[in-house]
Amino acid sequence: MNVSETLIQSQYTRQSLIMLPIPDDFHELNLNEELDRRIQRERRLRARLRILKMPAYIATVILRNPPPRWSQFPNELESESDTQLTFDICSDFRMTSYSSHMLFPDSKFTSLDRLTAARSRALTCPLHDNSDTGAEFYQNMKANPKLKEFEDKYDCDVILQPDNVWRKNKRLVVFDMDSTLIQQEVIDEIAAFINKKAEVSAITERAMRGELDFASSLRARCALLEGVSARVFDTLKENGTITFTKGARNLCTALKRMGCKLAVISGGFQPLADWVKEQLGLDYAFANNLEVSDDGERLTGQLVGDIVDAERKASLLIDLAHIEGINIAQTVAIGDGANDLLMMHAAGFGIAFNAKPRVQAEAPAHLNTGDLQHVLYLFGVTAKEQAQLISPPNAQPAPAPAPVQPSSDQNDQMDEAQ
Questions:
Q1: Is 2.60.40 the CATH number for 54-162?
Q2: Which CATH class is domain 172-379?
Q3: Residue 75 pLDDT > 80, yes or no?
Q4: How far apart are CA 300 and CA 224, in angstroms?
């Protein structure tokens, strides 16, 4: 029997040729069907091969307000498993999860903090966009209105990062202070001493929303503080007015043990920044200086030295990276205000923490859980690893809370309580 040969180029198998023997009596229609089938298969394989050449991204999904670990999940929440969550984010944004391809059979979403067998507080999923590459992918993702709809649907934050070596290897983390490392806006608390908190707060809010020039608004607010006792910062510390944000101590402890340099760069005031540096074990502290009267008793309402505004924050971050010999890709900036955006974009990775909507929209990433320790999820640190990092030296690491399903007795008690 004579045999003709049809040659099909294949990039996927990296073979030069695929030999397809075709008998002389093979029906032409069958031949065309066979060729069509193989061409379609070739296209699918090439599409999978292109995934290897496209920039990969890691999506970190963090629940903002998960139920307590001991409580019963409502049926509608329990039905939204990790698998469903991953599937929905892929389908909503035309992405592809590695786990859906034969090329990556063992690469699935990873739970960073499991609540139940089917549900996690935080998980990561390696993704590829099906239409865009590089910066286009990221920008289209951020601009897609479906992203906020997805986050609202699941009450979660979705953080997208390039899947490269720098994601887990950070060496410099820079924080804003007011409403980031601490829960207060310090100038508002000082203003309370002179019954001008409402006036100062109004200026502060407009500045944080980006409606006012930061330097001008800062001078206007400070002018209202003329005559305040110079010991006001000591008073705020001693009476418990200044409180640290949940998770701030644990985050800084963990980052230091991971070998990171830490800094606070604040548009607030140097006396508080120095105290925060001491309390959290930071390496650097930069902030504004209020002028004190000649007798050292009162604030004059004036500023001295350079104002730490948005440009100054970004410049200080870059300078610190240079001084410490750190690749800018290994730097992180965390803040909540419009004056933190330049710093966030100057860093290798920027996070808007519990920020205003405009800031969240413009920042590289956002986190709204209210717990700074959850930043560690974005670096791929699991709950178990976090427990080890924050344990006291020479102490047995505190175990991460295990997923606990309520017993039937507990379910009965909860039903009775309801």
A1: no
A2: alpha beta
A3: no
A4: 9
- Of residues 277 and 191, which shows the higher confidence score? 277
CB burial readout 120-155, b (16+ within 10 A) else e: bbbbbbbbbbeeeeeeebbeebeeeeebeebbeebe
Q: How far apart are CA 139 and CA 350, in angstroms?
A: 15
What residues act catalytically?
A: 176, 178
Task: Record the pTM.
Answer: 0.78
Q: What residues are paired with 123 via a beta bridge? A: 61, 111
Contact of 31 with 48, CB cutoff 8 Å? no
Q: Enumerate the domain spans of the chain.
A: 3-50, 54-162, 172-379
Pick the closest to residue 334 from 308, 312, 366 (CA basis): 366
For 53, the token pair is 């050449």
Q: Which of 214, 399, 202, 236 is nearest to 306 (CA)?
A: 214
Residue tagged 């409580």 (tokens): 71
Which residue do the tokens 């469903």 mark? Answer: 84
Whether the domain at 54-162 and the domain at 172-379 fall into the same CATH topology: no
